[in-house]
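Q: I'm writing a short explainer about Dehydrogenase reductase SDR member 7B for a general audience and would like to include a description of its predicted shape. Could you first generate the structure from this sequence?
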Amino acid sequence: MRDMLGINVEQQTYLSRYFLSEHLVPAERGRLCIVSSIVAYSLGSANSLYFSAKSYLSQFGRSLAHECRTLGCGVLTIQPGAMADTNFSSAGDCENSAIFKVVEGITISPLSRDRHIEG
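A: Of course. Here's the predicted structure. Afterward I'll give you a sentence or two in plain language.
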């Protein structure tokens, strides 16, 4: 539990504070990138701590983006879905879950468009 919260909450919070206060805000430019997950909006049995930590990161990123909107820098929160080519699915014993199935024919719109970026 301590490792999960340390990596997903505590360390990302400390690193965000450091890079914003020491680099991005003084320079009035640049973007901080926070990596969350699509599971931030899900409920999952036996994974509630992980899902909650990712929910924290998503909301933290949104809040920081709002705070930075007038400071010349921004915050981008990335929320990827399941990655089938990692050990995550086997470690979680969910290789056959529908979330790890590849969906073909779907084009994801570029993140460079302003409507996708807050802050």
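A: For your explainer, you could say: The first helix runs from residue 2 to 27.
Q: Perfect, that's easy to follow.
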